[in-house]
Amino acid sequence: MAKRSIPDIVIGRLPVYLRALNFLIAEGRQITSSQELGDRLGISSAQIRKDLSHFGEFGKQGTGYDIVFLYEQLSAILKVNRMWDVALVGAGNLGKAIADYPGFAGKGFRISAIFDTDPTKIGKIVGVHDATVLDVQALGPTIQERGIVIGIIATPAVDAQAVARTMIDAGVKSILNYAPITLTVPTGVRVQYIDPVVGLQRMTYYL
Amino acid sequence: MAKRSIPDIVIGRLPVYLRALNFLIAEGRQITSSQELGDRLGISSAQIRKDLSHFGEFGKQGTGYDIVFLYEQLSAILKVNRMWDVALVGAGNLGKAIADYPGFAGKGFRISAIFDTDPTKIGKIVGVHDATVLDVQALGPTIQERGIVIGIIATPAVDAQAVARTMIDAGVKSILNYAPITLTVPTGVRVQYIDPVVGLQRMTYYL
């Protein structure tokens, strides 16, 4: 299948393109080029054209890309032209910040269930969607009932693996992990890590 | 110069290798291979060998890599075998979570100055290093006095560009930005973005 042959690293760049296109839309722009996108992102224009060519023809030679069209096409390829419910575990400072994050709006995700172990947090209303913090005991059943396949872990490191296991056993296939620990997950489950250390260490080389 | 010829994308993978090595050390392991690292990280072993070959010979054919040695070498290459002071702007839920993040320990960074505009936050003690939240008016002078070259922005999107400008004017060369906005920065300043949307969108393709 053609789809299987697209390298993960190409798929991994599409959200970055989507993000840049979104900013161009916000700026009121209509047409862009692989050169402009490349300059903004620090990626070569040839790389961008090569990445996009895996999915078809999005621009015409010499006229560039229609920004909204390309945005919609990439959104469809990444399946974010729909709304995914997301289960978040951890309602501390980090979990609350994630639930409050305005950047999710219009990007395909809604944090619709939030869990914690702390009795003082359970029952509180948090986040932009006014979700009630539930006891983490309800994590598995809630994921199953609502057919949730995406989870975010914002717990202390010591709790993250057990939370991941509960999520996966209940049907989660994609986990965004903020805890500073590498998760062990079965084949077919994907994990992305949010780690400020990696971001900072990517820049110190140049200092 | 050889150093300049190393692609950014290679430098960008070194912190990911460092992170994996750190977990191997925590597991009490002593020797690893490009194959094992690759399996853990979803990167081909050939890619890992090629990346490391830019910097010298770290392993012997057939015997693998000494984990601590490789960790120390990569730390030195990335210049994180020392302590960098970091200025953090934003002491809301996100800023507090960053200041409390235990994952910075031993990785080369110390959040030693924290700023906010909110009078109810200024003067409070936050984070693992018990930093006092300062008025954001003190941001530029503090960066200059302490020679800080790394900043983290955890403000609302609307404030991020002005904060970046103040940081850069005072001497910051590397910015980790959590605000959902692309920053405009002069040549010579690097920005890394922490965006949960990018992480989530990297996984939905496979759902």
Quickly list its features.
homodimer, 207 residues, alpha/beta, Arc Repressor Mutant, subunit A, Rossmann fold, 2 domains, 7-stranded mixed sheet, 3-stranded antiparallel sheet, 8 helices, 42% helix, elongated
Layout of secondary structure:
The structure is a homodimer of 207-residue chains.
Chain A: H1 8-26, E1 31-32, H2 34-41, H3 45-53, E2 59-60, E3 64-66, H4 67-77, E4 84-89, H5 93-100, E5 109-116, E6 125-126, E7 131-135, H6 139-146, E8 150-153, H7 157-170, E9 174-177, E10 190-193, H8 196-204
Parallel strand pairs in A: 4-5, 4-8, 5-7, 8-9, 9-10
Antiparallel strand pairs in A: 1-3, 2-3, 6-7
Could you please describe the fold and organization of this structure?
The structure is a homodimer of 207-residue chains. Chain A has 207 residues and is of the alpha/beta class. Chain A folds into two domains: 3-77, Winged helix-like DNA-binding domain superfamily/Winged helix DNA-binding domain (Arc Repressor Mutant, subunit A), CATH 1.10.10.10; 84-197, Rossmann fold (3-Layer(aba) Sandwich). Helix content of chain A is 42%, strand content 19%. The first copy, chain A, has helices at 8-26, 34-41, 45-53, 67-77, 93-100, 139-146, 157-170, 196-204, and strands at residues 31-32, 59-60, 64-66, 84-89, 109-116, 125-126, 131-135, 150-153, 174-177, 190-193. In chain A, the strands form two sheets. Chain A has a seven-stranded mixed sheet. In chain A, strands 1-3-2 form a three-stranded antiparallel sheet. In chain A, strand 8 (150-153), helix 7 (157-170) and strand 9 (174-177) form a beta-alpha-beta unit. In chain A, helix 1 (8-26) packs antiparallel against helix 4, helix 2 (34-41) packs across helix 3 (45-53) and helix 6 packs parallel to helix 7 (157-170). The mean pLDDT of chain A is 92.
